[in-house]
Amino acid sequence: MNSPVSRRDFLKVSAAFGTAAAALSFPAAFGLQRAFAADDDAQTILNIAATAETFATTHYYRALSEMDFNEGEKAYMLAAMESELLHRNFLIANGAVPIVEEFYFPEGTFADNKMLGTVTSVAETVFVAAYLAAVRRFAELEQPLLSMVSGQVAVVEGQHLLFMKGLAGTSPANDLGLADPLFYNVSDAVPVISGLLDGKSEVAGIKTETTATAYPGDEAVNEMLGGMSYLQAPKPATDPATFPSM
Fold first, then answer.
1. Which DSSP helix (H) or strand (E) runs through 76?
2. Domains, the chain, ranges and CATH?
3. What is the pLDDT of residues 42-70, one digit of tens each?
4. Crossing angle for the helix pair 190-198 and 113-140, nearest 10 degrees?
5. CA distance 194 to 199
6. What one-character-per-residue DSSP string does 31-64 give?
7. Cα 187 to the chain's mean position, in Å?
8. How far apart are CA 37 and CA 1, in angstroms?
9. H/E element holding 164?
10. For residues 245 and 152, is the Cβ–Cβ distance under 8 A?
11. How far is Cα 15 from Cα 25, in angstroms, rounded to an integer?
12. Is 233 exposed, middle or buried (0-12, 13-18, 19+ CB in 10 A)?
């Protein structure tokens, strides 16, 4: 249970991606291992989550900037980007500070839908597992409403995972009975995604680009949304209006 996550062995994209994923569970196909470390404090959870959401917003923004999608795919991508921005802004409003706001993407991530779907599926698998760890730890810290919000976000990241697995060619894309609890603490996910943060290690078995991509900024993201919202009105569990009888 105490074995560390190996960054090099953790994610290995190969030409046989579809076959491997069909034969094994998705995490097993990519070499994901469970990790356990010292318990996080609340600020650590918030900061790591805000970093992940900053990356995710940048990721979808760049995909929309560089790739051609059909009408349905584009609507999905815009909705995903908007939701990641919503998550980021919620976390920052609650005291989170992103660790970095520049990221090193795996080479070829935005080459085509299959590659985008494959790389993003791996990222979303990590995000879902990290938010599950946040649910556990916030509950232990007696922060039940933050625990609920973590669950709310995990559900949305799971929606993204479903779509991206489909884009990568996984069939059926809804092949999970339960999301895989890969991490006991949110910080356990950091070694897994370190290549995205520092560009010094492979991600998904692929070398990262040598130039970092900066978070485009809220204004640029909102401009890409064109003044439209693709989401239902958010109802975070921490909003007093959500549970007026409390």
1. helix 71-93
2. 38-224 (1.20.1260)
3. 999 999 999 999 999 999 999 999 999 99
4. 130
5. 8
6. T---B--SPPPHHHHHHHHHHHHHHHHHHHHHHH
7. 14
8. 10
9. helix 144-168
10. no
11. 17
12. exposed
Angle between helices 218-225 and 71-93 (to 10 degrees): 150
Write a three-state SS string for 93-129. HCCCCCCCCEECCECCCCCCHHHHHHHHHHHHHHHHH
pLDDT-derived band at 122 (thresholds 50, 70, 90) equals: very high
Residue 204: the pLDDT is 75
Q: Is residue 13 over pLDDT 50?
A: no
> CA-CA distance, 100 to 146, in Å (whole number)?
23
Place of tokens 């993407």: 105
* Residue 145 pLDDT greater than 60, yes or no: yes
pTM: 0.84
Mean of per-residue pLDDT scores for the chain: 86
pLDDT at 37: 52
- What six digits make up the tokens of 87? 């998550």
